[in-house]
């Protein structure tokens, strides 16, 4: 599907969800409780077949978090970006998409490690880069490392 | 991934972080039953430098040079990805000469990277001489890089708007000599390793990865193409004039170690073919678009995909209009290709682990960032 076709298809399939467009991809805003169902529909629907999650990451906007999913279809070669807003910065949690794309396991481990966002339904959430005892989440904007000495 | 309780006939061993076959500091935890591998789990972070966090403190022209330290064998291509993302934000395009130079450098990088992989694969499987044969041509490529870029590994040559300086006067002559020599010597690669009985026995039918697994696990590059998944970014989303050159996306549907081995050798031929088409047709003109001293991108987000020697590298820049990027994310190919190790190792013999690691061609600093 082309960008326009995909946009009108999404509007039909997920009425009421906000759509945007950036320079590269169409963007679909999803509520955090619905992310698993929406992702499942997008992956299993014959018309979209988003079977390849090529990136999953988060952005810290200081007032809230934003989850970003980049996916593509190896059949139709169209791309889509899904965004989820997480209001609660201290207790950020949302459903994992690991049952749909196995690649998400490591992406979500990384996000948990560096942002402190938890994923319910993830088989084994762990810190992959930092040690288990590490205090704080480095990619948050308010992260302070006590060991850093400013010159 | 669940941690298992250790049963009495099951034991756990650590491979790495200093194990030579991991090509860096990767630690694998293996659950074994005799010689059979029951499960595996990678432990990362031994060379985590926080490149994404560091990038948030540097300017747009500065942070791209940190990416040379991620996949150190594809330094040119990582720089190219960042430059393209920034150019996308500024809505400019590199001059025609710079684009051709970039493609030439990228393909030379791919050749050098595959040659190092080929030599190291020989070492891993117990053959020492391929290493010296591979380094004979690789040395020529690094010399070409050194003349034009000033360094051999972390080149920092490609910059937003073009390339840092013009080509060395001897560049064309030396590349032609390299191509001639490489084409004459490629049969040695077959004689030394490809036809070798030990290599065939250790790679054919070992380390199978199905196409469904490759897609679900997010594998890209030669690893996915050896399982029959079309994923060459140069074909799917052409950048820097890759749509103007002819080449073939090499595919194989076997998905085993030998398929990955064969695929990289064939890819080297395609790289040579691309270089041959361009080396006599480098356009004249400027090699760099003049940019302001401090680059500021309009607020928004920019995503750029490129094909490194190991797969798809995605650079995701979020800008809030200031002179530093608000957030930079690198979707590195090795991070996802590492996922393939677990299904491959399950049920395999521990002796095959080394050949699987060798054909996956993992670069650990690229995983850890």
Automatic annotation (TrEMBL), chain A:
<dbReference type="GO" id="GO:0008137">
    <property type="term" value="F:NADH dehydrogenase (ubiquinone) activity"/>
</dbReference>
<dbReference type="InterPro" id="IPR010218">
    <property type="entry name" value="NADH_DH_suC"/>
</dbReference>
<dbReference type="InterPro" id="IPR001268">
    <property type="entry name" value="NADH_UbQ_OxRdtase_30kDa_su"/>
</dbReference>
<dbReference type="Pfam" id="PF00329">
    <property type="entry name" value="Complex1_30kDa"/>
</dbReference>
<comment type="similarity">
    <text>Belongs to the complex I 30 kDa subunit family.</text>
</comment>
<feature type="domain" description="NADH:ubiquinone oxidoreductase 30kDa subunit">
    <location>
        <begin position="28"/>
        <end position="144"/>
    </location>
</feature>
<dbReference type="GO" id="GO:0016651">
    <property type="term" value="F:oxidoreductase activity, acting on NAD(P)H"/>
</dbReference>
<protein>
    <recommendedName>
        <fullName>NADH:ubiquinone oxidoreductase 30kDa subunit domain-containing protein</fullName>
    </recommendedName>
</protein>
<dbReference type="InterPro" id="IPR037232">
    <property type="entry name" value="NADH_quin_OxRdtase_su_C/D-like"/>
</dbReference>
<keyword id="KW-0813">Transport</keyword>
From TrEMBL, chain B:
<keyword id="KW-0874">Quinone</keyword>
<dbReference type="GO" id="GO:0050136">
    <property type="term" value="F:NADH dehydrogenase (quinone) (non-electrogenic) activity"/>
</dbReference>
<feature type="domain" description="NADH-quinone oxidoreductase subunit D">
    <location>
        <begin position="124"/>
        <end position="290"/>
    </location>
</feature>
<dbReference type="GO" id="GO:0048038">
    <property type="term" value="F:quinone binding"/>
</dbReference>
<dbReference type="GO" id="GO:0005886">
    <property type="term" value="C:plasma membrane"/>
</dbReference>
<dbReference type="InterPro" id="IPR001135">
    <property type="entry name" value="NADH_Q_OxRdtase_suD"/>
</dbReference>
<protein>
    <recommendedName>
        <fullName>NADH-quinone oxidoreductase subunit D</fullName>
        <ecNumber>7.1.1.-</ecNumber>
    </recommendedName>
</protein>
<comment type="subunit">
    <text>NDH-1 is composed of 14 different subunits. Subunits NuoB, C, D, E, F, and G constitute the peripheral sector of the complex.</text>
</comment>
<comment type="function">
    <text>NDH-1 shuttles electrons from NADH, via FMN and iron-sulfur (Fe-S) centers, to quinones in the respiratory chain. The immediate electron acceptor for the enzyme in this species is believed to be a menaquinone. Couples the redox reaction to proton translocation (for every two electrons transferred, four hydrogen ions are translocated across the cytoplasmic membrane), and thus conserves the redox energy in a proton gradient.</text>
</comment>
<dbReference type="InterPro" id="IPR029014">
    <property type="entry name" value="NiFe-Hase_large"/>
</dbReference>
<dbReference type="InterPro" id="IPR022885">
    <property type="entry name" value="NDH1_su_D/H"/>
</dbReference>
<keyword id="KW-0472">Membrane</keyword>
<comment type="similarity">
    <text>Belongs to the complex I 49 kDa subunit family.</text>
</comment>
<feature type="domain" description="NADH-quinone oxidoreductase subunit D">
    <location>
        <begin position="295"/>
        <end position="369"/>
    </location>
</feature>
<dbReference type="Pfam" id="PF00346">
    <property type="entry name" value="Complex1_49kDa"/>
</dbReference>
<keyword id="KW-0520">NAD</keyword>
<keyword id="KW-1278">Translocase</keyword>
<dbReference type="GO" id="GO:0051287">
    <property type="term" value="F:NAD binding"/>
</dbReference>
<keyword id="KW-1003">Cell membrane</keyword>
<keyword id="KW-0813">Transport</keyword>
């Amino acid at each position: 599907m082309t960008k326009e076709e995909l946009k009108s298809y999404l509007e039909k399939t997920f009425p009421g969800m906000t759509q945007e467009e950036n320079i590269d991809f169409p963007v679909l805003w999803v509520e955090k409780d619905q992310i698993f169902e929406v992702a499942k529909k997008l992956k299993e629907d014959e018309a979209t077949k988003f079977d390849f999650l090529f990136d999953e990451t988060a952005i810290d906007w200081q007032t809230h978090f934003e989850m970003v999913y980049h996916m593509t279809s190896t059949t139709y070669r169209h791309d889509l970006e899904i965004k989820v807003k997480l209001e609660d910065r201290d207790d950020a949690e949302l459903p994992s998409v690991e049952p749909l794309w196995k690649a998400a396991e490591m992406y979500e481990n990384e996000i948990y490690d560096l942002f402190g966002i938890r994923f319910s339904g993830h088989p084994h959430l762990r810190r992959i880069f930092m040690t288990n005892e590490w205090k704080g989440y480095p990619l948050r904007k308010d992260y302070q490392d006590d060991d850093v000495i400013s010159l | 991934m669940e941690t298992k309780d250790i049963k009495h006939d099951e034991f756990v061993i650590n491979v790495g972080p200093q194990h030579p076959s991991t090509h860096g500091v990767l630690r694998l935890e293996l659950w074994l039953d005799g010689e059979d591998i029951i499960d595996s789990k990678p432990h990362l972070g031994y060379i985590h430098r926080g490149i994404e966090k560091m990038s948030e403190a540097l300017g747009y022209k500065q942070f791209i040079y940190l990416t040379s330290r991620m996949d150190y064998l594809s330094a040119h291509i990582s720089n190219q990805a960042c430059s393209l993302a920034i150019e996308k934000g500024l809505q400019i395009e590199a001059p025609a000469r710079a684009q051709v130079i970039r493609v030439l450098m990228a393909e030379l990088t791919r050749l050098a990277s595959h040659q190092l992989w080929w030599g190291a694969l020989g070492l891993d499987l117990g053959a020492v001489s391929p290493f010296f044969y591979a380094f004979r041509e690789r040395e020529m490529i690094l010399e070409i890089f050194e003349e034009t870029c000033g360094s051999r590994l972390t080149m920092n040559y490609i910059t937003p708007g073009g390339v840092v300086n013009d080509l060395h006067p001897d560049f064309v002559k030396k590349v032609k000599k390299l191509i001639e020599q490489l084409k004459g010597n490629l049969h040695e690669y077959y004689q030394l390793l490809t036809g070798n009985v030990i290599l065939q026995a250790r790679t054919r039918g070992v380390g199978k990865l199905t196409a469904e697994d490759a897609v679900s696990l997010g594998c890209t590059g030669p690893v996915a193409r050896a399982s029959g998944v079309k994923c060459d970014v140069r074909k799917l989303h052409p950048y820097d004039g890759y749509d103007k050159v002819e080449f073939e996306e090499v595919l194989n549907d076997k998905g085993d170690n030998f398929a990955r081995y064969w695929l990289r050798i064939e890819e080297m031929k395609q790289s040579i073919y691309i270089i041959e088409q361009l080396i006599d047709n480098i356009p004249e003109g400027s090699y760099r678009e003049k940019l302001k001293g401090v680059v500021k991108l309009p607020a928004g987000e920019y995503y750029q995909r490129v094909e490194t020697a190991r797969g798809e590298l995605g650079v995701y820049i979020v800008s809030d209009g200031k002179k530093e990027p608000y957030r930079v994310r690198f979707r590195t190919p090795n991070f996802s290709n590492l996922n393939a190790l677990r299904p491959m190792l399950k049920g395999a013999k521990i002796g095959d682990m080394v050949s699987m690691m060798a054909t996956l061609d993992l670069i650990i600093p690229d995983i850890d960032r």
